[in-house]
């Protein structure tokens, strides 16, 4: 990974942690296959939802934190929305912020504050409005609505027919089109391999185009990526040889319930450092806090190993085969993961998903072993 994308990933990962920072204090937790707040229903509380399908047609007087396959908000949230899912659609009104990470994110309603979105595809519909700033990271971004302040971020491709009252600052991987009907009240500043297609008289301020640095010159970034891959490969092989049963259990947990893994991975990612800091500021808890931080750092590092193993086994069906074949499938699976997390723009989102998926599987496996130990001890 180049220095540019390494720094960007750290910044965006920190931002994504903020997406779910309120989860630890959520007062109404619900986990079901299908969750619905029906039209006419009013909830006076913060909600924490996880499920395959989540629909809000009613009113929530509080925040909604949701993780699921499909998340649809047609009603009103008098608070903020934090969501992670395959498909996220907001057709209603959010009085505070939206923070979302997903495969496809569509906003057709009104956002009272800022919007922070990261996904494969992002659409801001023609009737949508964001009262303050829009920060976006996407493979494809379509801006047809209104942003009352600035637009910042990056996308492989971007198309704009809507309005930004302030500045637009974007990193573009391929092409950008500012079409007739669009309006930019400030400056348009973008980095792209070629000049954007910009309609006449749509930008009130300056238009600044910068070409991206030649990635071929980033020799150290390429070498660093190869070394990083080889180190993870070595550690993963040690896991497969020394602890094959544990490695397989972690991988099986990813296959069994990926959404559950994502949820627990996100919780572990957020709660663990907070708990460690609390322990570290108490004299008695310093040793435990240090141990917790070491576990946290190691878990972050090895989380990618188990996702690579899962990808390899999914492709080659190698879970029941001998160790040498599992090592080969792991090497290929890990390579696929490394390629994915190093993709421009989308790699940020993929890296986040890989980390939380692996973390969740580690946590659930550890809990499974703990339960087995407790049951054996009680016999």
TrEMBL record:
Q: Record's Pfam families?
A: DUF8173
Chain ranges passing through the membrane: 219-242, 262-284, 290-311, 323-343, 349-370
The top of its lineage is: Archaea, Methanobacteriati, Methanobacteriota, Stenosarchaea group, Methanomicrobia
Give a yes or no for keyword Cell cycle in this entry: no
User: What name goes with this protein?
Assistant: DUF8173 domain-containing protein
Which keywords belong to this entry? Answer: Membrane, Transmembrane, Transmembrane helix
The organism's place on the tree of life at top rank = Archaea
**InterPro entries to which the protein is assigned, alphabetical:** DUF8173
Ranges where the DUF8173 domain occurs: 227-364
Q: Does the keyword Transmembrane helix apply?
A: yes
């Amino acid at each position: 990974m180049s220095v540019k994308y390494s720094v960007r990933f750290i910044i965006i990962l920190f931002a994504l942690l903020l997406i779910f920072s309120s989860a630890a204090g959520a007062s109404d937790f619900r986990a079901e296959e299908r969750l619905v707040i029906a039209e006419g229903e009013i909830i006076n509380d913060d909600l924490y939802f996880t499920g395959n399908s989540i629909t809000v047609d009613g009113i929530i007087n509080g925040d909604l934190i949701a993780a699921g396959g499909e998340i649809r908000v047609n009603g009103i949230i008098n608070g903020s929305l934090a969501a992670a899912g395959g498909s996220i659609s907001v057709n209603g009104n959010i009085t505070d912020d939206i923070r979302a990470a997903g495969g496809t994110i569509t906003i057709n309603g009104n956002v009272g504050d800022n919007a922070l979105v990261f996904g494969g595809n992002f659409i801001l519909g023609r009737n949508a409005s964001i009262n303050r700033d829009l920060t976006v990271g996407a493979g494809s971004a379509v801006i047809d609505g209104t942003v009352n302040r600035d637009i910042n971020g990056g996308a492989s491709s971007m198309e704009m027919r809507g309005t930004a009252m302030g500045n637009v600052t974007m990193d573009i991987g391929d092409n950008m089109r500012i079409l007739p009907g669009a309006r930019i009240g400030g400056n348009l500043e973008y980095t792209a391999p070629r000049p954007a297609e910009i309609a006449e008289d749509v930008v009130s301020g300056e238009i600044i185009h910068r070409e991206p640095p030649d990635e071929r010159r980033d020799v150290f970034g390429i070498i660093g990526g190869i070394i990083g891959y080889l180190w993870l490969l070595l550690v993963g092989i040690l896991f497969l040889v020394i602890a094959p049963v544990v490695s397989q259990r972690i991988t099986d947990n990813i296959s069994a319930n990926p959404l559950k893994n994502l949820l627990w991975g996100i919780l572990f990612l957020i709660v663990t450092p907070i708990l460690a800091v609390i322990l570290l500021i108490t004299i008695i808890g310093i040793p435990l806090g240090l141990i917790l931080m070491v576990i946290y750092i190691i878990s972050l590092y090895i989380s990618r190993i188990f996702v690579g193993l899962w990808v390899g086994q999914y492709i080659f069906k190698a879970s029941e085969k001998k160790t040498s074949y599992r090592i080969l499938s792991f090497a290929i699976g890990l390579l696929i993961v490394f390629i994915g997390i190093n993709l421009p723009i989308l790699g940020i989102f993929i890296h986040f998903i890989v980390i939380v998926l692996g973390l969740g599987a580690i946590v659930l496996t550890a809990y499974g072993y703990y339960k087995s130990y407790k049951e054996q001890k009680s016999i």
